[in-house]
């Protein structure tokens, strides 16, 4: 459902423009395939929270099959990968999973996702490149 | 949600994703494994067609299977993984149960988390940072370092910069801009064609140089235009010529510069500055050419002092004759030039005789009458009578110059040895009057401070009388300014503070004091300050003026204390015994009823009469008794004491007269403990002590003597001491006595008990500590007790001395000396006779002769001031005192008595 309402990015240029377009807000790009279960759940979550986080973050969706330009650059091979950018800077987050570059697993609920996004935003505002996730996912994934 | 515009735009053709925004990828070592899960598109499309919509996992599974086929190994592996999975899920279920039992961490902090909503934006921003976990700071630092740029600047740039002096300045801004451009070009060239970049760079470099030199050339060109138009419009303004010449000089076109300036000189030959500039420019052509120019210049400007001096400078400094010739010529044309006269006199001063200089000076004075320096040097070189006439001449010409008058006063003082100070003051006051009359601008008159400053200069030059006269003038001027001459204290205070300000210059400050005193003779503190300043400057003998002032002071302020001070200083500082005696006698006639004068006379008789001191002082004290009918108790005591001394000296037994005198004294002063003590000593009588103790319970020595007197009966003595302690609970001396008493009876335990008790009451009493130290039997404990006692009594000198004594008893002789010296070095110990006595004994036994002599020297310095020490005071007050007349003999007696009182000490030679 959610994937219908959130803006889609159809080319690499659009992805770049989306990342460059925001000065004050976090840019969240979900790379994945719409038909995968994980991806659907994530889209649902993102659509659910998009209105709540609109003050400090904006959400875009990108199909990695339609736009394969970043697959090798960002190692996009998971069904669903959420990446964060702030002022054209790739924001990293230590989830405890060993991969700080992206969120490539399903979080428990929407609130968890909001918490993570907020934490990243706070860190980004302070000029950090890496933040520590408020929830540790090392045991779960 | 607003929709961004770019979402509806077409992507540009041939766009390479990511590069446009400089994106860089990453490799995650931990995450490579799952790359195998990438599924080709067509695979699942096929599946989709075959089986219709299914759940994704299945599709995934299928896809894999289709591609890879089923394998036994795979099956086995799957089984193992399933097993592991099952195990793990089982475990996690257990964990879940456990965690359900306890509240989770998130729920425990839920309320706190909610409270975070109240945290403001600022507070978030100001949260403390964790350490540099990601090494971000270090990376930034390295990045910064790598970004710092250094350039090799071509030499032409530097040269251009140093030449751009006053007129123009280098445009640093444009240079740095081009540098930035250059750098960006360079960076581009790294990406693109390297060969092309290099040539670009070189071009750019040339461009910079071209630009800067262009700038300079532009500026100079502009300047030239401006100056040439200036020269045309104002050809008679020398400045435009000078400026153009300077511009050419900056451009290193010296010949143009020279021709320009020469042009200028021809056009305006009367401009001195042009000529001077001309000479300066031609300096490189050798002095000969310069001289020529100078000669030309002087032809047009014969009155210019500057040019003449320049001409002298151009001569070789050792060529004295031609320098002089030029100066003489100069004086012919400008006879009133101060600079030339000065130069000439300076020159002559090196070479010729005093006579010639004097002649020159007198000429100089004729032509430059306003120049004080010439007058002064002329006066200094002249004879007295001549100098006088010169001063008079100078005065007529410069009637508002104060220096003339000061010089006159100095001259008078120098030439007339016996000139009186009054004469000088008259001279000075006349000078001040004249100055006031002739000075138009009243603010130019010297202030009080300026006059005093002049006085200090005079003092420094040794003209003491002049100094005094000037000080007088200084203070007078102020007085007249204010017109009211009431003895207000503020005036005196003001002057006193002035004197303090000049305290480095003794004479000046003394003079101020003297003047204050002559105005306000009743100001005692000023007198004392004056006397003090005289005493401070004493060398071998004090200044005789000190006693003159004493004499004046006692005349004006009739107070016995001043007489006593006078006599004391006469006696001590001047060793003028006769004069001191005379002063005392005068004081005696003036104040016949003053006891302090009488006491002073007795003391004086005692210390100055040699062996017959008893008779002398007794005579004085008898006189006192005849004069004064109602003497104080102290007078009675002194008198009876002297009588006793005289009796013991003559071997006379105690007679009726003495006892009646005692009784009489006691009748008059029944509460004076000293008199009881004296009487008991005379009569060797316990009853007197008993009575005395009853009447004067606060007088401690009476109690102690009483206890001593009944020593044969220990029970009674103890009772007396206990009684005394209850009556005088605040006297540590009685406790000491009590402890000693027990010690004498060998009751060491009770002595120790008493000692601890007493020390609790008086923890800082040195005598009690000494008793305590003596009662400690173990040497090991003693060391700590030493430290304690020193700490508690704040390094009391007698404790130091006793520690030395302990070391002596233990036979550690080197330490003994150190401790005794420590005791004697303290201020309090210096006045303790016992310390001196012990040291004397020590040096007598173990010291060298030099040490002993040095010690005795020090001893005789302080002998008169020693007033403490148990044994010392006992002996010095004894009626047999006169047997040990000399200080050293007395010291020997003290030390012997000290040794005999210390039975533990075995003296070894």
From TrEMBL, chain A:
Family indicated by similarity: Belongs to the DIM1 family.
Disulfide bond sites: 39-80
InterPro entries, per the entry: Dim1 (IPR004123), Thioredoxin-like_sf (IPR036249)
PANTHER family: THIOREDOXIN-LIKE PROTEIN 4A, THIOREDOXIN-LIKE PROTEN 4A, 4B
Chain's role: Essential role in pre-mRNA splicing. Also essential for entry into mitosis (G2/M progression) as well as for chromosome segregation during mitosis.
Main subcellular location of this protein, as a coarse class: nucleus
Naturally occurring in which organism (per UniProt): [Candida] railenensis
UniProt superkingdom: Eukaryota
GO cellular component: spliceosomal complex; U4/U6 x U5 tri-snRNP complex; U5 snRNP
Compartments, as annotated in UniProt: Nucleus
Signal peptide: none
Record bears the keyword Glycoprotein: no
Record's keyword annotation contains Hydrolase: no
Keyword entries, A-Z: mRNA processing, mRNA splicing, Nucleus
Pfam families (alphabetical): DIM1 (PF02966)
Protein's name in the database: Spliceosomal protein DIB1
GO BP terms in the entry: mRNA splicing, via spliceosome
TrEMBL record, chain B:
Protein localization: Nucleus
Basic and acidic residues bias spans: 52-64, 78-87
InterPro entries according to UniProt: HAT, PRP1_N, Syf1-like, TPR-like_helical_dom_sf
GO BP annotations listed: spliceosomal tri-snRNP complex assembly
Pfam families: PRP1_N
Example of a GO cellular component annotation carried by this entry: catalytic step 2 spliceosome
Keywords tagged on the record: Nucleus, Repeat
Biased composition (Acidic residues): 42-51
Domain PRP1 splicing factor N-terminal: 11-136
Lineage top rank: taxon: Eukaryota
Region (Disordered): 1-106
SMART domains assigned to the protein according to its UniProt record, in alphabetical order: HAT
SUPFAM superfamilies in the record: TPR-like
Name this polypeptide is given: Pre-mRNA-splicing factor 6
């Amino acid at each position: 459902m959610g994937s219908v309402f959130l803006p889609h990015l159809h080319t690499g240029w659009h992805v770049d423009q989306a990342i460059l377009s925001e000065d004050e807000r976090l840019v969240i790009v979900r790379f994945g395939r719409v038909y995968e279960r994980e991806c659907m759940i994530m889209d649902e979550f993102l659509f659910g929270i998009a209105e709540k986080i609109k003050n400090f973050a904006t959400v875009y969706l990108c199909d990695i099959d339609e736009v394969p330009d970043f697959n090798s650059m960002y190692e996009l091979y998971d069904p669903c990968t959420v990446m964060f950018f702030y002022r054209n800077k790739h924001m990293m987050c230590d989830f405890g999973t060993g991969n700080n570059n992206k969120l490539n697993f399903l979080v428990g609920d929407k609130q968890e996702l909001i918490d993570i996004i907020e934490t990243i935003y706070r860190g980004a505002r302070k000029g950090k490149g890496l933040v520590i996730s408020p929830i540790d996912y090392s045991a779960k994934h | 949600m607003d929709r961004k515009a770019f979402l509806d735009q077409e992507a540009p053709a041939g766009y390479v994703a990511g590069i446009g925004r400089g994106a860089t990828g990453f490799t995650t070592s931990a995450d490579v494994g799952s790359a195998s899960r990438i599924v080709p598109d067509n695979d699942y499309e096929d599946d989709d067609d075959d089986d219709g919509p299914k759940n994704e996992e299945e599709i995934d599974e299928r896809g894999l299977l289709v591609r890879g086929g089923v394998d036994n190994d795979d099956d086995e592996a799957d089984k193992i993984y399933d097993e592991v999975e099952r195990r793990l899920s089982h475990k996690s279920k257990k964990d879940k149960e456990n965690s359900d039992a306890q509240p989770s961490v998130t729920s425990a902090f839920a309320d706190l988390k909610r409270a975070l909503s109240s945290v403001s934006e600022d507070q978030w921003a100001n949260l403390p940072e964790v350490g540099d976990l990601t090494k971000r700071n270090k990376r930034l630092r390295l990045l910064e370092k790598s970004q710092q740029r250094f350039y090799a600047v071509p030499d032409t740039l530097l040269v251009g910069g140093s030449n751009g002096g006053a007129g123009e300045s280098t445009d640093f801004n444009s240079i740095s801009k081009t540098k930035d451009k250059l750098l960006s070009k360079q960076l581009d060239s790294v990406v693109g064609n390297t060969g092309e970049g290099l040539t670009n760079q070189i071009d750019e470099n040339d461009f910079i140089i071209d630009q800067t030199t262009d700038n300079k050339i532009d500026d100079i060109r502009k300047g030239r235009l401006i100056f040439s138009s200036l020269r045309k419009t104002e050809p008679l303004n020398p400045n435009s010529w000078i400026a153009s010449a300077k511009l050419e000089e900056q451009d290193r076109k010296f010949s143009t510069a020279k021709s320009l300036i020469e042009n200028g000189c021809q056009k305006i030959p009367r401009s001195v500055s042009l000529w001077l500039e001309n000479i300066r420019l031609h300096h490189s052509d050798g002095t000969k050419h310069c001289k020529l120019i100078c000669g030309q210049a002087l032809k047009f400007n014969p009155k210019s002092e500057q040019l003449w001096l320049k001409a002298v400078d151009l001569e070789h400094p050792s060529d004295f004759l031609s320098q002089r010739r030029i100066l003489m010529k100069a004086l012919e044309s400008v006879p009133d030039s101060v600079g030339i006269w000065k130069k000439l006199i300076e020159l002559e001063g090196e070479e010729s005789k005093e006579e010639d200089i004097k002649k020159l000076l007198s000429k100089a004075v004729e032509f430059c009458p306003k120049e004080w320096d010439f007058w002064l040097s002329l006066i200094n070189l002249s004879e007295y009578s001549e100098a006088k006439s010169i001063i008079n001449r100078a005065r007529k010409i410069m009637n508002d110059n104060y220096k003339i008058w000061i010089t006159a006063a100095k001259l008078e003082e120098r030439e007339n040895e016996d000139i009186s100070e009054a004469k000088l003051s008259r001279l000075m006051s006349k000078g001040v009057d004249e100055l006031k009359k002739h000075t138009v601008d009243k603010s130019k008159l010297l202030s009080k401070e300026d006059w005093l400053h002049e006085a200090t200069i005079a003092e420094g030059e040794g003209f003491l009388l002049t100094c005094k006269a000037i000080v007088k003038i200084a203070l007078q001027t102020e007085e007249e300014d204010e017109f009211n001459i009431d003895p207000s204290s503020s005036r005196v205070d003001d002057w006193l503070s002035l004197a303090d300000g000049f305290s480095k210059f003794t004479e000046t400050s003394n003079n101020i004091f003297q003047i204050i005193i002559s105005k306000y003779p009743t100001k005692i503190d000023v007198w004392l300050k004056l006397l003090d300043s005289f005493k401070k400057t004493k060398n071998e003998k004090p200044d005789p003026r000190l006693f003159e002032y004493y004499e004046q002071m006692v005349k004006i302020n009739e107070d016995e204390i001043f007489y006593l001070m006078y006599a004391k200083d006469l006696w001590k500082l001047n060793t003028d015994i006769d004069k001191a005696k005379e002063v005392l006698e005068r004081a005696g006639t003036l104040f016949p009823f003053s006891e302090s004068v009488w006491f002073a006379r007795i003391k004086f008789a005692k210390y100055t009469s040699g062996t017959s001191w008893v008779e002398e002082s007794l005579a004085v004290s008898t006189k006192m008794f005849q004069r004064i009918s109602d003497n104080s108790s102290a007078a009675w005591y002194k008198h009876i004491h002297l009588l006793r001394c005289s009796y013991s000296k003559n071997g006379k037994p105690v007679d009726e007269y003495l006892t009646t005198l005692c009784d009489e004294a006691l009748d008059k002063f029944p509460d004076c403990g000293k008199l009881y003590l004296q009487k008991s000593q005379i009569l060797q009588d316990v009853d007197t002590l008993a009575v005395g103790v009853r009447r004067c319970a606060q007088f401690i020595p009476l109690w102690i003597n009483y206890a001593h007197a009944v020593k044969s009966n220990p029970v009674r003595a103890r009772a007396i001491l206990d009684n005394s302690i209850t009556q005088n609970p605040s006297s540590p001396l009685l406790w000491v006595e009590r402890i000693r008493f027990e010690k004498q009876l060998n009751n060491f335990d009770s002595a120790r008990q008493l000692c601890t008790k007493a020390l609790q009451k008086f923890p800082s009493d040195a005598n009690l500590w000494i008793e305590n130290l003596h009662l400690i039997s173990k040497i090991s404990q003693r060391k700590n007790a030493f430290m304690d006692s020193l700490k508690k009594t704040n390094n009391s000198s007698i404790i130091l001395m006793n520690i030395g004594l302990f070391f002596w008893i233990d036979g550690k002789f080197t330490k003994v000396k150190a401790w005794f010296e420590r005791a004697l070095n303290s201020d309090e110990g210096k006045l303790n006779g016992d310390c001196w006595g012990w040291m004397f004994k020590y040096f007598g036994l173990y010291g060298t002769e030099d040490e002993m002599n040095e010690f005795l020297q020090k001893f005789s310095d302080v002998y008169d001031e020693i007033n403490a020490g148990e044994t010392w005071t006992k002996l010095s007050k004894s009626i047999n005192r006169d047997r040990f007349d000399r200080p050293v003999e007395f010291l020997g007696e003290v030390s012997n008595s000290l040794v005999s009182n210390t039975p533990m000490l075995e003296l070894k030679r």
